[in-house]
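Sequence, please.
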């Protein structure tokens, strides 16, 4: 197996003394898991931030072997990790993608949608703008994995209605997509919703 592509880093966890196992979202190959050697070193550590856009080479000699990956940074989400709301939004969007999609199945709309969501989180003037984009990404993911279309947002949806819609979608995601691991992954969403609820008014 050999993949050379742009990829969004969705998750990274330590493996062994110096390495990490990452999950990478690509347009044409879907989600790919791979081992990154030296991941805890000074050079690679800044690359292994969820949400980062990378150029990757993923290679495996056999189908039974865990692939290895080489990474090159294109766009870093690191500058936004110190901001509570953007950090929570990035963490949830990436955790949702990593936890719900099967590996090796291409979802080009989700790759584009995740990229657009992360861009909105990082560059919209406030969470009022990007929270609607995030809700749209959740609805897109539900549709792409076979759970039908979530109700469309009303044309003049206020902030309270958007929070209600996010809460409703969260129940669907937790009960249907993450039933076996809802506590682990949905914790990221709980943090996000708690921070969004602190924004008041329309």
């Amino acid at each position: 197996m050999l993949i050379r592509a742009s990829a969004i880093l969705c998750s990274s966890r330590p493996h062994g003394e110096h390495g990490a196992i990452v999950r990478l979202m690509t347009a044409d190959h879907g989600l790919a898991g791979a081992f990154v050697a030296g991941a805890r070193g000074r050079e690679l550590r800044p690359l292994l931030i969820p949400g980062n856009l990378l150029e990757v080479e993923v290679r495996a000699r056999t189908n039974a072997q865990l692939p290895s990956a080489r990474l090159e940074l294109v766009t870093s989400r690191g500058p936004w990790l110190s901001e509570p709301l953007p950090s929570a939004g990035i963490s949830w969007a990436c955790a949702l993608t990593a936890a719900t999609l099967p590996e090796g199945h291409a979802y080009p709309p989700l790759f584009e949608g995740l990229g657009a969501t992360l861009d909105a989180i990082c560059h919209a003037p406030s969470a009022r703008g990007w929270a609607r984009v995030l809700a749209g990404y959740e609805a897109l993911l539900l549709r792409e994995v076979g759970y039908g279309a979530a109700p469309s947002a009303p044309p003049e949806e206020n902030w309270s209605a958007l929070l209600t819609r996010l809460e409703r979608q969260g129940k669907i995601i937790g009960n249907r997509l993450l039933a076996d691991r809802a506590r682990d992954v949905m914790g990221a969403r709980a943090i996000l919703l708690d921070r969004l609820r602190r924004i008041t008014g329309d």
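The mean pLDDT is 91.
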